[in-house]
Structures are given as structure tokens and as C-alpha cells.
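Fold this sequence, please.
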Amino acid sequence: MSSPLQSHEPEGQPPEPTVMGVVDAMDTVRLRRLNRWQAEGLREDLADLYVESSDADAGEEFNDRQKFLLRLADDVKLPGFDMLVAEAEALAGCVCGFSVPRDGSWWQGFEGQLPQNLEQLTASGHVFAILETLVHPHQHARGLARLMQERLLTDHQASLGVTLVDESARWVLAALKGWGWQEVGRIQREDDTTPVRVLVLPLGERTEDHPDGLAHNDRTQRPE
């Protein structure tokens, strides 16, 4: 599954977020977790947010909205699915994903040898996949996408976030890299016609042994 980022933030390096102050036009943003049933109940509002935050071609909004609803209906059925929404006066953003299975099946189709540290983190159950990130463009919430991603990963005590990006989505790739995501390779799924890029967001401490941060994050790691 690819997870095209739908965030309309200013180009360039995003600013560091603060816990409740990642705002320009808003005084506060409230972050709230939703389970699969709550997400399904909010599906129409989420679809509206998707359309409003996307750069769909004129006349394609309805089709894109329907595709999002179908994708959401499948995503909420994934084991370990979770969603975080940002609310101000209205729905300002959302991020969703699921815990990557320990058996390594998520990495199926990875081109080349999977790096050992990624394999170890997956086997230990500390990897969380981000499926979708949306931010309302008119909220002017600087850094909100990054804040939501990191909060959801931390809530799941993950040491590593992973996501997939279409080859053609260059601006998505640039945005993610600006927030600290690292490209580690490509995956060719059986049902995909072209490979997708694999990006990771390490939450581990950068040390001499792990300068890339690809290690267990002691602050978020749950007891085994």
C-alpha cells in the first residue's frame, strides 16, 4: 500500500513543532485518537478533508473521494489499525496506520537485501506503518503533519515509522525528507505495476554505533 502524503505546508524545511503550539492561525490544536469504529463513523468528514487537502485535477474530486473511502474501508480492517485526528474549530488533519507484523510480511517485495537493523526492529514489534497523512491547507498549521506522525508513533511505543511513496510523488518525498524521514529502498508489490519508495522515520537515539537512529528507542519501547 502506498501512502501519498496530502499535506499543504510551505515548501522548505518545516519548523520544529511544539506540543500545543504548532499553529499560525489557530490558538490550539487538540489531538484525539480514534479506533476503527470511530474512524468509520467519521468517514464522510475524513473524505471531505481528503478532497480539501489534495491537489486533484478539476473534475476528479468525486472519483478521488470515492477511492479514498474505499481505501479507508480496507485500512480500518488491518490488525492494529489506529488513527489520530487534529481538531481546532473543525477537523484540521489526520494520520493513520497500523503496527507492522513481526513476521516481516510487510517488507515482501523489498528490492535487495533488507538491512539487518530494519529486520531486527520489525521482529521485535517496534515498527509502525503510516498509511495516510492529511492536513487542511486553510488551517495554516505549520508542522502539524510531523507532530501528528510523531505522536501516533510514540503512542504505539514504536522505534521506527515506515511509509510508502509513489515514484511520481516527488513533492511528497521532499516533504517527508524535510521532516526527518529517510529513504531506504524500494518495494515491488505483486499487485502494483511499479515499485514504490520506502521511507523510515527513526525515533531511536543517534549514537556512534547507530548514527542514523535506526535502533530501539528506549523512551518509547514497551516491555517485552
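The chain has a mean pLDDT of 81. The longest strand covers residues 91-99.
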